[in-house]
Design a protein that fits this description.
about 100 residues, 1 helix, mainly alpha
Length: about 100
Amino acid sequence: MMKLKRSENLTEEREREITEVVKSVNELAQIMKDLSVLVIDQGTIVDRIDYNIQNVATSVEEGLKELQKAERHQKQGGMVMCATVLVVLCFIMLVLLILKQLLL
C-alpha cells in the first residue's frame, strides 16, 4: 500500500514537472514569436534608414551642383558688370576727349 501511495506521489510530481516544462516551452515559443516580430520591425526600420540616407546623399550632390552653378553665375555676373563699367567709362572719356577737341 505504501509503495502504491509513493508511486502515486511520484507520478503526480512528474505530471507537475511535465506541466511546468510544457508551460516553459510555451513561454519560450511566445518569446521567440515576439523576437521574430521585433527582428522584422527592425529590418523595416533599417531599410527606411538606408533609403533616407540614399536620398540625403542624392540631395547633397544636387545641392553641391547648384552651389557650384550659383558661384559660377555670381563670378560671371561680377565680370560682366566690371566690363560694362569699363566700356561706359571709355565711352565717357571718348566723349570728353571729343568735346575738348571741339572746344579748343
